[in-house]
Amino acid sequence: MSSARFYGVSIFLLFTSSIMVTHAGNFYQDFDLTWGDHRAKILNGGQMLTLSLDKASGSGFKSKKEYLFGRIDMQLKLVAGNSAGTVTAYYLSSEGPTHDEIDFEFLGNVTGDPYILHTNVFTQGKGNREQQFYLWFDPTRNFHTYSIIWNLQRIIFLVDNIPIREFQNAEVMGVPFPKNQPMRIYSSLWNADDWATRGGLVKADWTKAPFTAYYRNFNVNTRSSTSSLVDSAWETQGLDPMSRRKLRWVQKYYMVYNYCSDSKRFPQGFPPECRHSRFL
Ligand SMILES: *[C@@H]1O[C@H](CO)[C@@H](O)[C@H](O)[C@H]1NC(C)=O
Question: Which of 48, 99, 107, 266 could form a disulfide with 94 if both were Cys (CB 3.0 to 4.6 A apart)?
Answer without folding.
Answer: 99
